[in-house]
Amino acid sequence: MVTWVVTRGSSENTVRIEQRFTVSSRQLVSGSGYVPDVSPSFFTGIVSGSRLTVMSGSRIVGEFSFTSDLIQGTWDDSWSMGYTQRVYTDTNALILNRE
After folding, report:
1. Of 37, 64, 66, 72, which residue is the least packed, with the fewest Cβ within 10 Å?
2. Do residues 69 and 19 make contact, with C-beta atoms less than 8 angstroms apart?
3. Taking 90 as the threshold, does the pLDDT of residue 22 lie above it?
4. Rounded to whole angstroms, how far apart are CA atoms 46 and 32?
């Protein structure tokens, strides 16, 4: 399960995003070099109309459309630390509903 906590950012068109998730099963191969994601993770969102662009530093990791109760879009994040890792969704497959 993934939860986003979205709060006001430093300007009227930015938001802070705290992404929390739970791991249901993880088996790491010793010495594989895999570095698992940590929870929580923090991102900056740039709002333009009903579009939300999610940034990790200077990299775009998500593109979303939103209403007051729904955020839907595509996540695509990759990084390298010895090995290249990538976390991504199909187009518009990440859907978050307001609780």
Report:
1. 37
2. no
3. no
4. 35
pLDDT at 37: 78
Nearest in space to 53 (alpha carbons), one of 78, 73, 79, 37: 73
- Beta-bridged to residue 80, according to DSSP, are 84
Indicate the residue type of 51.
R
* Global model pTM greater than 0.70: yes
Other Cβ atoms within 10 Å of 98 Cβ, number: 11
Residue 41, C-beta contacts closer than 8 angstroms, at least 6 positions apart: 18, 19
Contacts of 68 (CB under 8 A, 6+ apart): 98
Tell the burial category of 78 from Cβ atoms under 10 Å away from its Cβ (0-12, 13-18, 19+). Answer: exposed
What is the average per-residue pLDDT within 72-91?
86
